Amino acid sequence: MFKPGKHLVLGNIACAEGALRAGCRLFAGYPITPANEITEYMSGELPKAGGYFLQMEDEIASIAACIGGSWAGAKAMTATSGPGFSLMQENLSYAHMTETPLVVVDVQRSGPSTGQSTDASQQDFYQARYGAHGDYEIIALSPWSAQEMFDLTVRAFNLAEQYRTPVYFLADGMIGHIKEELVIPEKVEIVNRKAPSGSSVTPFGTDDPSLVPEMPRFGQGYRLQVTGSSHRPTGVRDYSPKVHAEKVRRIMKKIAQAEPKIRDVAKVDLDDAKVAVVSFGASARPSYGAVKKLREEGIKAGLLRLKTLWPLPEEEFTNLANKVDAILVVEMNAGKLVREVQRVACGETKIASLTRLGGVTPTQGDIAQELRRLAQ
Amino acid sequence: MKNLGQLKADYIVQNLTAFCPGCGNGMILNCFVRAVDDLGWNVNDMLCVSGIGCSSWIPSPHFRGDTLHTTHGRALAFATGAKVFNPSLKTVVFTGDGDGAGIGGNHLIHAARRNIGITCILVNNFNYAMTGGQIAPTTLHDAKTSTSPYGNPEQPFDIAKLVAAAGATYVAKWTTNHVLELTRSMKEAMQNPGFSFIEVLSQCPTQQRNILGIRAPAQELPSRLLDMLTESTYLADRQEKDYVYAVPSGEPEAALKAIVNALGDTGKAQLVDHLTLGRVARVDATNIEAAKAKLSIPEVKRVAENCEGKQEIGVFVRKQRQEYTEALREVGRRARGEQ
Amino acid sequence: MAKKFNVKVDEATCKGCGICVHICETKGGKNLRYGQKRTLLGGALPEGADKCTGCRWCERYCPDFAITIEEEQVDV
Q: Which listed residue, A132, B13, C14, C57, has the most CB atoms within 10 A of its CB?
């Protein structure tokens, strides 16, 4: 592990460093480009920190081991990319249903299928949100620098513990492989899951307004019944309509009602903006440059950069749509975030889409040109 | 010694089991709690993990310990994460022939390869029972099931051999009709520090009545299936008495009459159920050659040797090898410069 | 003083599968049989004929934890 202070670090390594500092002590993963640096770094560092590194036989087993480990008390994590993320979906559905804290790092490459294994995209925006079967809410974070690969990974673990949920860390192949300054603080804030207070526990129900139940672990004598089947607050299987609906609505509300607290956005020059870019991750970097360029030209441009992709910061979209004359959504996929912005903005303002495929970020020039056109 | 009521009070948390009448899973649960009791294990130290299928319901919701009921085929992977992080958890996995050797086959061989300190009990009833009796990797060739109406085109695994080859350090195979041997084997398995595997051939009255074509009243069918399991298996070191099977060419009852007539004093005959041969006449005789000579009658299609189509049961592997979580702890010590 | 063994079948959890009757017949004391009674689930309820030897094979075999052999000290 790096000492506190300034370092020049690869994005993926910064992510692993953040995980270690957040208290991750179980990593179960499978090799896949462009996430391998995380896996390899964890194999060296986790045992030093008293944790366990598992290279499992496939991604399905990796998520399974993370869930089993989490219920044994571990802060657990895996790192993968698009194809592996697809394999994980069934067990992620299980993690949602059982409210299991864990962190899934998806260093997105370009698809579909094997695609461009060594290049970047932001294609898994919806796979993270809707890839698993059933109804559930998610928390997904989006870093745009090596520093955020560290900071937001720490946040991912804390959110997972606080809300008893899987948290999706949607990095991409470019940010994963960029080498940039990383400042490691002396201390990081750590959040731990709510341990049971009494001699009995209701692991899947609560009267607490947070809607987050206590999280016991195996081996404490609670005779836990953890199942992916529809279940009562005690964990006992129950397929009746009322029980099922209550369970699913609670796990969704648990995250949806906390959106304002989970929300994390960066606003650049938005106060007096007439035209704004909405973007995230690697796409936001040339977007930032384009906004600054337009300001030099006297055009009032601004940037809303999402650090939480899900739950969607809908209020930010609404406020922005009411304020500016045009919004340009910039992303490295065929157009996903733009659909959400359109839906929320509901015709309040002009919404344009700039998409980039091919494994590369959109250029600052292209974004600036489109912004100029929208500003007229 | 505790009676069954006391064992139930100590180990079972659901009053009415979820199983069909006469299901082998309930018998395996019975053997399991006896093994736990005999070992003196505290349920608070135990973790039972299972997948999807009828046998995955053995621990969950019945057993009074921590239970983890997971996704289809993946129980061993979930169990691996839990056991690695907390090796003091006495971890037992319950799976089926479909869950464990079909969709879960990959995780099964890797758990065995790693020799992780988990006991895996795989219940083999030769089909995907919970979903309606479809073919499984253990279904016999030519069997008619709900997804093989013209006969199963596939051949079955020998799961115990597969797991032994993958590296498990305790491998055994029993049937539900071998309750004493199974209980003893479970105890031995659970005390093995490495990966222990027990395959249990089991009756499924609900599906096997169709797949094997054995029709009987509700209170007779399970016992017939149990006897079939014993008839269709053998222990390598047990002396086989002299007997053969006369396969009927027509109605078994009619064939039996004719066989008894033909044999006279040379031997005794009775109808039995056999997994691969079907409903056949078992002919016992002190002079088996003399008896066989009497069986060339039109009611007998052919005579099968007593080992034909039988599966070997017993303990196949007992060995020692470094256990996986121990190897991980050694990695940790090396990483921290402690050795 | 001698031991007497009494068969207790829980009619709420017995499923009438017949395994205990078969095992008592073939390996045990030939005590269990079916009478007229039914279980709460509608299956055949086994009863003891007062010949129980306490071998407990039925307890070993029952899939439903429904049968218990209770010991009683009796004056001979």
A: C14
Positive or negative, the Cα torsion across B75, B80, B81, B85? positive
Instruction: Please check the confidence at residue C75 and state whether its pLDDT lies above 90.
Output: no
CB contact, 8 Å: C63 with chain B? yes
Identify the CATH number of the domain defined by range B4-213+312-333.
Answer: 3.40.50.970
- Residue B26: phi, psi to the nearest 5? -65, -35
How far apart CA A153 and CA A54 sit, in angstroms, is: 20
Q: Where are the beta strands (DSSP E) in chain A?
A: 5-10, 26-29, 52-55, 76-80, 102-108, 139-141, 166-172, 179-184, 225-227, 265-268, 275-280, 301-306, 308-310, 326-331, 350-355
CATH number for position C36 = 3.30.70.20
* Residue range A64-88, pLDDT digits in tens: 999 999 999 999 999 999 999 999 9
Is A50 near chain B, with CB under 8 Å?
Answer: yes
Residue A356, phi then psi, degrees to nearest 5 = -135, 120
Q: Which of B45, B69, B84 sits opposite A228 (nearest CB)?
A: B69
Distance of residue A45 Cα from the nearest chain B Cα, in angstroms: 8
Q: How many domains does chain C have?
A: 1
Q: Where is average pLDDT lowest: A289-298, B159-168, C32-41?
A: C32-41
pLDDT of res. B237: 83
| Whole-number pLDDT of residue B161 | 98
Give me the DSSP letters along C10-27. -TTT-----HHHHHHHHT
Chain-chain contact of C63 with B223 (C-beta, under 8 angstroms)? no
Tokens 């292209």 — which residue?
Answer: A366
Domain encompassing residue C28 = 2-74
**Tokens 């050795």 identify what position?**
B339
CA dist., res. A355 & res. A333, Å (int):
6
Task: Select from B64, B66, B334 the Cβ nearest to the Cβ of A218.
Answer: B66
Helices (H) and strands (E) in chain A, counts: 14, 15
Contact (CB<8Å) B61/A237: yes
Over range B23-28, report the average pLDDT: 98
Res A218: pLDDT: 98
Let me know whether A205 and A255 are in one domain: yes
How far is residue B273 from each of residues B155, B204, B227, B305, measured CA to CA in Å? 21, 14, 7, 15
pLDDT at C2: 84
> What number is the ipTM of this complex?
0.96
pLDDT of residue C76: 73
Per-residue pLDDT, averaged over B314-332, amounts to: 98
Q: Which amino acid is at A1?
A: M
Q: At what angle do helices B159-166 and B105-114 cross, to 10 degrees?
A: 40
Mean pLDDT computed over C2-16: 94
Q: Are A72 and B328 a contacting pair at CB < 8 A?
A: no
Q: Are strands A166-172 and A102-108 parallel, antiparallel or unpaired?
A: parallel
pLDDT in tens, B279-314: 999 999 999 999 999 999 999 999 999 999 999 999
Say whether both A286 and A200 belong to one domain. Answer: no
Measured distance CA(C60)–CA(B180) in Å, rounded: 8
Write the CATH number for A186: 3.40.50.970
Query: In chain B, what are the domain boundaries?
Result: 4-213+312-333, 241-306
Asked if A167 and A156 touch (Cβ cutoff 8 Å), the reply is yes
Compute the distance between CA of residue A36 and CA of residue A29 in angstroms, rounded to an integer: 9
pLDDT of residue A160: 98
Testing the interface with B: which of C15, C20, C56, C70 to mutate, by most B Cβ within 10 A? C15
